């Protein structure tokens, strides 16, 4: 029998922990609720998005997350063109590095409903109920694990589909210099172009964020790749963009085949089209790959700031 290094034993321990802590049944429960017809497509300023917000808030309360800064609830309210909207934010305070932040995020808004038709609801199962499902599941995983040295911030953004309003407001509420990394999760419900057990990271070449994640996954069978759709400019098309522009290693993790994804922004983006088993494995891999960042062992290099 060959000797097994201490590093591999630690990795296997992380994998076993993630395997036991992140269950497909729970992933399916959350995803199914967020993408249900009752949410009416989660369009901005509608009863449906209010239902989605209330569901996420209830999940954060169930998990036992604390409030963000001076907020008195999980809602971060703000105005968009004179109308009230809100992000949903929950916190797990860091033990030894409370002023160093690691963000896990996605967006909970989508396209709403058509006026008529047999199927008139844009359920947004992949875009981006899958990302919010990951955020909630990771929040529960890390809360139970209870060993994060850095403070973890879990954010469900609103207004992504209409201009990134939620992430813009949030980015102005936090000191970007104190944000160590941002895991923005967008459309992970379908297989990537490389098949199962894989995903890509937008802006991979802009920091060593992806390199750190991949290092933590050695031996797991999961791989992160560079964004294969550079022509789509995805790095600046999701909620990571606002903090990335301020120098934060803020990247989006996705599996969406942007050239041939059949249900993207269509009525057919429903739970039945998702690979729930693979999605669960992706969430587990995000949990494993983030370990050295949330522990304070690794600090990703900064992204070049965008000059105003």
TrEMBL record:
Residues 87-284 form the Peptidase M28 domain. Keywords: Signal. It comes from the Bacteria. SUPFAM superfamilies: Zn-dependent exopeptidases. Transmembrane segments: none annotated. Pfam families: Peptidase_M28. Residues 1-18 form the signal peptide. This is M28 family peptidase. It comes from Flavobacterium polysaccharolyticum.
